[in-house]
Every structure is written in structure tokens, then in C-alpha cells.
# Entry
Amino acid sequence: MKKANDELLCLDHDPHLEKIQDLKWLPWIGIDYFNSEPRILIVGESHYLLPEDNPYYEKNKDEVNSPEKDFTRNVVQTFCIDHKKVQPMFDNLNRCLFGKRDMKKITLDMRKAKWQQLAFYNFVQRPMENNQKRPTGEDLENGWKVFAELIKILQPTECIFIGVAAADSSYNPYKCRHGKEKVGNVVPRLFSVKIEEQTCQCIAIKHTSHHFSWKKWREYLKNNNFLF
# Structure
């Protein structure tokens, strides 16, 4: 796993983030995020451990549980920016963000510039054993508590959830409504969050890992002011 480049990150709020109870990994916060309009926070679902029979399992487990809490940042650096290997979730997310199917046409400089404007973290605050596992009720309840604390610090104006599990859960404290029509084969979930003086418009979209209509979702997100 490539270590995140601190020159691309805003680290000013790390002391406050470190104090959030149950936040296992520090979010990626691009160095230009707080100067961007809109301020977009992307919320993934989970980090997954490699299978135990994988030769890199122990190294992966050590990275996930690093006391530096930098695993999420390293994931963004490795897969979203450096693009060291194919990773469907992040490749499709980048296609949606840039509007280009061919990943070779999304240059390193383009990826750096874009991700310097974005924030990202994963909703579930523990590593999942594998990608067949689903979050428990406790995971989702805890996820919403951590989300509320992050909103106070990151102050996004728009928030994009990758996948609809958190939005659909009974633990979602915000009134969630369905969009008027499907995008691809999923109806977007929409809700508004107000915490203290910060208001954030949120959307939950189809998970980007498989069968993701990136062009349709890009058009929908842009038309509804979720992308710059």
C-alpha cells in the first residue's frame, strides 16, 4: 500500500479528528477541500481484509490496524490517485468524477487535482472480514454517530454515499426520500443533514463496485449539484 502524500492533504484538523470516539481511520481531506465549492464528502461503505490464506494477509492486517490511522488515506492515494492496480469501486468512481471511460485518459495530474478538492472516508468503522460480509446493526448505528461528528469538522455542502445500505437502515436519523426515477437500476436516496449551523445535502447512489452506470450517475449528480 502506498503511503499518502501529505502534500496533497489538509492535516490541520487531525488533532480534532483524533478525538472522535470510534473513528478508526482518519478521512482523506484534500488540501484544497475547504476552499472548494461545493465541498464534497464521499462516503464509502467498508474496508475489507484480504483472505487469511493470502500471503499478504498479515501485512494487510497490520496496515488496517496501524496506530497512525492512515489506512483510508493510503487507499485513496494508492487506488484513486496513483492507480497502481485495477480496483473496480475506485475506477468507476473516478470515471463518474471525470466523465471518461478510459482510465488511461485520466492522467495522474488530473487525479491529483481532483482528489485535492475532495474528502473521503468509509462509513463502517471496522475492517470487514471479506466483501461477502454485510455491516451489522451495530456497525450502522455507530457509523451514523461518527458521521455526525465528522460533519461538524469537515462541514461539507454535499455528501455522496457509495451504496444505499446506510441510508436505508433504520438507524439513519435523517428523513430519507427516494428519487423520482431509477438511475441505471437503482433509485437514488436523498436526505438533508443539519448539524449545529452546518447544512449538507446528501445522496446515496448505487455502489460503484459492479454494474455501475457511471455516465448516467455522473449526469444525475451534476444535474442535481452534487459534482463540480
Summary: The chain is about 30% helix and 15% strand. The helical segments are 14-17, 57-64, 71-81, 88-98, 108-115, 137-154, 165-168, 214-223.
